Amino acid sequence: MGSIEQTAEVRYTRADGLAEALRGADALFVYDFLSTAVPDAWHGADRLRWLHIASAGVDPVLFPELRDSDVVLTNSRGVFDDPIAEYVLGVILAFAKDFAGSLRLQDEARWQHRETERISGTHALVMGTGPIGRAIARMLRAAGMKVAGVGRRAREDDPDFGTVHASDRLAEHLPAADYVVAVAPLTEQTKGIFNATAFAAMKPTARFVNVGRGELVVTGDLIEALRSGQLAGAALDVFDTEPLPADNPLWSMPNVLLSPHMSGDFIGWRNTLVEVFADNFRRWTSGLPLRNVVDKTLGYVPSPPQER
Fold first, then answer.
1. Residues catalogued as catalytic
2. What is the per-residue pLDDT for 305?
3. Number of H helices, E strands in the chain
4. Please, what are the domains in the chain?
């Protein structure tokens, strides 16, 4: 932020001082991307023109007053694409090769030979065809998996997915998937889309991976599907309540892999997020078009027409 401080007055604030810090400010950098402080402080935004958030998801700041305003919203799209794709490949391999089982046996000093699964030739269905979903598709295909996407419109000639199914036909394509990956943005259409009906459509050997938003999933329905054997396993990096409460049954389920919202957080990610904002700040002060402008009606940065 040093270069920005040479050309602008920079105010640093916590949530309780945000309303006052917003008064007279032209731009707001929401570095704490999990903060919900912006809506309550919005009355202080008397001349704000641009808001940037240090995440790909924008739901914490996409409240009605911002959506209806002339304030431009940008995000940090592109920072987490490959790291999250690596995470997804990692948990798929962890399931297939039963790494959790090996660690449990190692703790018990037990030599127990087992056979494991291949991932080559298995089917992955990725819901979300933005940059992160595309990075996931490319990495899984490189590992020999067959991948299809779920997006806003169906098509057969996608450069990364090959086939993309329309999101309103999701249930029809869940039964064929060995791995279902959720990476879609949170919108009114996607909230709670992975519910009891969706889990019932999956085959009992399938695994579910969520690296998108916790609210994409009806957590109680997922827990029941895992308990009943309707679903073989789940790898979860995001939750509808964070931190995940200590008494949540997901913690103790042997067929669940949990991580604390860190699938994209590589060493140096915080500095990279600041660099993304600094680059956009230079563009903004130079009168150049901003990168990663969010369509506030859709709730995300639109992809080129051929990738939607």
1. 213, 242, 261
2. 57
3. 11, 11
4. 2-78+266-298 (3.40.50.720), 81-258 (3.40.50.720)
